[in-house]
Design a protein that fits this description.
This protein is of the alpha+beta class. Helices cover about 25% and strands about 15% of the residues. It has one domain. It contains 2 helices and 4 strands, in the order ββββαα. The chain has a two-stranded antiparallel ribbon with strand order 1-2. It has a two-stranded antiparallel sheet with strand order 3-4.
């Protein structure tokens, strides 16, 4: 949408006491090995635990990174890009996931009816 963005963030336990954000289907393969039950990734040796990042840190990082890139492109350093807060909803089952996914996919079709659309046709 021209005035907002929707997304689904899946937070997963990385098996090392941290967390990672990923798509619905791109989850890491972690196995447990050794006498101390420390997790070991199949593709590389054990790496010391990363700090757990919650949704607020992930959103803050996304907004900061994207705002810098946007402002660099429009040559307007330091100009706010994003509103201060965000809306979050915990998706607890596949039915809700499917409904939200469909809403996000069809949202651009409703732009003509959006009250913030400056080109919204008059009734």
């Amino acid at each position: 949408m021209p005035n907002h963005v929707h997304g689904i963030i899946v937070l997963t336990d990385d098996g090392r006491g941290g967390s990672s954000a990923s798509s619905r289907t791109n989850l890491p393969d972690i196995t447990y090995a050794g006498t101390d039950n420390l997790p070991v990734n199949q593709n590389r040796p054990y790496v010391k635990s990363q700090p757990r990042h919650g949704l607020p840190e992930i959103i803050r990082a996304f907004k900061s990174f994207s705002a810098r890139r946007i402002n660099r492109q429009r040559r307007a350093d330091g100009i706010p890009v994003w509103q201060r807060n965000y809306y979050e909803h915990i998706i607890r089952n596949e039915r809700v996931m499917d409904n939200i996914t469909k809403y996000i996919e069809t949202n651009p079709l409703r732009w003509n009816e959006d009250d913030e659309n400056p080109m919204k046709p008059n009734p």
